[in-house]
């Protein structure tokens, strides 16, 4: 048995050399996950490790230093107060996306039992967060990727989100809107989406950790706006009159997405900033 402090400084240095943004926080998370030592005992300074625990921590640190996202290493991540399984092949839930959930809840505040569709659902974090906050809602979570769809279905079970139905569909297929509406048996009060919106030319400039996430969930084609144009065009008639279409958008895309909504006949355009002050969510109401 060896005192944790003997290794901690070296491990922290390794993460710093690897360019990890918050090395102390990440080391704490990795030690807790690999060795089962919680933050309080780590800070107390009297925690000890077995050889097996040391090997387990160092194995995960090696992955992290090579750029594997912390969330993939841990296998779970928190979003909107809920836990979600994550791993290779699914987009990692981010705090910025909670802004999309918050606006969705605000828009549905006076709808007694809303019908909601979450397009490009990924892990299901948006769909499940809405469903848990709106227990009388019916939420359809639509995802194409086999890997992501597996996480989506697991996360529905994990969070006991009984009012979420998963559908494996290509949201850009011409037939998908009618399939979705038939499956739901009604038009929607809210269609919400965090679609791929990174310009193809910008993908290679992303952080190395983000480059480990699925390109399918990131690539918004040449101008980053393809999914906004197509989803708006294809799904506007899936909304009830007065229903809302809400998107997460990139840092410089708010104006373009507002224009897309206006060109498709949406009114009451609403913009919501994230905690960093960026215009992160754009929504419009069907006339």
TrEMBL record:
Function: Methylates the class 1 translation termination release factors RF1/PrfA and RF2/PrfB on the glutamine residue of the universally conserved GGQ motif.
Residue ranges crossing the lipid bilayer per the database entry: none
Positions contributing to substrate binding: 194-197
Keyword vocabulary terms for this entry: Methyltransferase, S-adenosyl-L-methionine, Transferase
Catalytic reaction(s) noted: L-glutaminyl-[peptide chain release factor] + S-adenosyl-L-methionine = N(5)-methyl-L-glutaminyl-[peptide chain release factor] + S-adenosyl-L-homocysteine + H(+)
Keyword Signal in record: no
Pfam families assigned: MTS, PrmC_N
Lineage: Bacteria, Bacillati, Bacillota, Clostridia, Eubacteriales
Residue ranges occupied by any Methyltransferase small domain in the UniProt entry: 107-202
Family of the protein in this entry: Belongs to the protein N5-glutamine methyltransferase family. PrmC subfamily.
This protein's name: Release factor glutamine methyltransferase
EC number: 2.1.1.297
Gene name of the record: prmC
A GO molecular function held by the record: nucleic acid binding
Domain Release factor glutamine methyltransferase N-terminal: 12-75
Domain of life: Bacteria
């Amino acid at each position: 048995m060896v005192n944790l402090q003997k290794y901690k400084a070296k491990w922290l240095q390794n993460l710093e050399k690897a360019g990890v943004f918050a090395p102390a926080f990440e080391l704490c998370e990795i030690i807790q996950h690999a060795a089962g030592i919680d933050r309080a005992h780590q800070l107390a300074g009297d925690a000890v490790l077995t050889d097996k625990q040391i090997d387990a921590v160092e194995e995960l640190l090696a992955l992290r230093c090579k750029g594997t996202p912390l969330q993939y290493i841990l296998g779970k991540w928190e979003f909107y107060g809920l836990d979600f399984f994550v791993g290779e092949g699914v987009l990692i839930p981010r705090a910025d996306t909670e802004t999309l959930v918050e606006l969705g809840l605000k828009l549905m505040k006076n709808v007694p039992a809303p019908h909601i569709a979450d397009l490009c659902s990924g892990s299901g974090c948006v769909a499940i967060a809405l469903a848990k906050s709106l227990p009388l809602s019916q939420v359809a979570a639509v995802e194409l990727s086999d890997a992501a769809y597996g996480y989506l279905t697991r996360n529905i079970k994990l969070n006991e989100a009984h009012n979420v139905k998963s559908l494996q569909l290509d949201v850009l297929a011409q037939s998908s809107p009618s399939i979705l509406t038939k499956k739901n048996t009604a038009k929607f009060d809210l269609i919400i989406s965090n679609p791929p919106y990174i310009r193809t030319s910008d993908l290679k400039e992303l952080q190395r950790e983000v480059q480990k996430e699925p390109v399918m969930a990131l690539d918004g084609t040449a101008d980053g706006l393809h999914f906004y144009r197509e989803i708006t065009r294809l799904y506007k008639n899936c909304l009830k009159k007065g229903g809302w279409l809400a998107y997460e958008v990139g840092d410089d895309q708010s104006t373009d997405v507002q224009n897309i909504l206006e060109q498709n006949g949406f009114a009451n355009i609403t913009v919501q900033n994230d905690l960093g002050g960026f215009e992160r969510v754009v929504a419009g109401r069907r006339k």
